[in-house]
Specification:
It is built from eleven helices and four strands. The protein is mostly helical. The protein has one domain. Strands 1-2 form a two-stranded antiparallel ribbon. Strands 3-4 form a two-stranded antiparallel sheet. Strand 1 and strand 2 form a beta hairpin. Helix 4 crosses helix 7, helix 4 crosses helix 8 and helix 10 runs antiparallel to helix 11. The chain is globular, with a radius of gyration of 22 Å. The termini are close together. 37% of the residues are buried.
Length: 299
């Protein structure tokens, strides 16, 4: 076997491309369309229990609050698959583009970490809704800051505003929100969205990667165009005139790491979704596709 620092070869591309592509196809097919939970599935039991929760005015929550959490998880999984698919396409068209591969992998992990957190099978429907609120509020806050930096008003209809979300979850649904001394949002019933790094670190640790935040920090070097990361993908090479030139270098180990992480970003949240929805056939197919990827992605 070649050394990990050896450059990627056409043999690596051919060995890795097919299994990763099959995994993406399975994940897309199994998660596209309505997320209707099967009878007696964990999600179906959870929906029945959550629909009967009471608002402050005495009316029932109904299906919408929890349904929105599963819808959001589906959108996040679709985003993770989209970015992993872009990394897969780069493997075929430009396998030495490690900076672009890392950037796509980082985005896939950020989407996957949110979906994985939302789809935790150990929580009940109320906590799942609280987690959705925390994620939506953090996103709305980021949108409002972006609008302010652009000198624009944060308009309704483009993205939910924090005030609207507070009214929906705190006032209308009656969820308990904890605020800091200055009135800022802290958490909803103990659930806080945390930071990008914290979410991805928790996801990576949860699937057995140690240290959890290490790979993500490395991938961020590419998306931030850090000079150390750009320099790292080059090597000094002597030219015919005796001068030393910097030439592109794509170690197979770096490409392998990005592909492995992007595959993880697809497999683990999709597995949680299929389990909760009671789609056992999909779970088995996904596990088989993931095993093929693990076999192929060897150094």
């Amino acid at each position: 076997m070649p050394a990990p620092d050896a450059p990627i070869t056409i043999g690596d591309v051919l060995r890795w491309h097919g299994p990763v592509g099959h995994l993406l196809t399975v994940a897309h097919r199994r998660t596209t369309g309505p997320w209707n939970p099967l009878w007696r599935s964990p999600a179906a039991r959870e929906a029945a229990a959550t629909a009967g929760l009471r608002r402050p005015d005495g009316t029932a929550w109904g299906d919408a609050p929890l349904g929105s959490a599963y819808t959001a998880a589906g959108l996040l999984i679709a985003a993770a698959v989209e970015h992993a698919d872009a990394a897969h396409r780069l493997l075929a068209s430009s396998p030495a583009s490690s900076l672009a591969l890392d950037t796509m992998t980082r985005a896939a992990l950020e989407a996957a970490a949110q979906a994985w957190w939302l789809l935790d099978p150990a929580i009940d429907g109320r906590i799942r809704v609280a987690r959705l609120y925390a994620l939506r509020r953090a996103s709305a806050s980021a949108l409002e800051k972006t609008a302010a930096q652009l000198g624009l008003a944060s308009a309704r209809g483009y993205g939910a505003q924090t005030a609207d979300l507070d009214h929906l979850y705190e006032t209308t649904l009656g969820m308990t929100v904890h605020r800091g001394p200055k009135g800022g949002f802290v958490d909803c019933e103990g659930q806080s969205a945390g930071s990008y790094t914290g979410r991805v670190g928790a996801f990576m640790t949860g699937i057995g990667v140690d240290p959890g935040s290490g790979p993500y920090a490395y991938f961020c070097g590419a998306s931030h165009a850090e000079l150390w990361r750009i320099q790292e993908r080059h090597r000094e090479a002597p030219a015919a005139d005796g001068a030393v030139h910097l030439v592109p270098h794509a170690p197979r180990a770096l490409i392998h790491t990005a592909l492995s992480a992007s595959a993880d970003a697809v497999v683990h949240p999709v597995d949680r979704a299929l389990y909760l929805l009671g789609r056992t056939a999909g779970t088995a197919e996904l596990a088989h596709a993931a095993a093929q990827v693990r076999t192929a992605l060897t150094l």
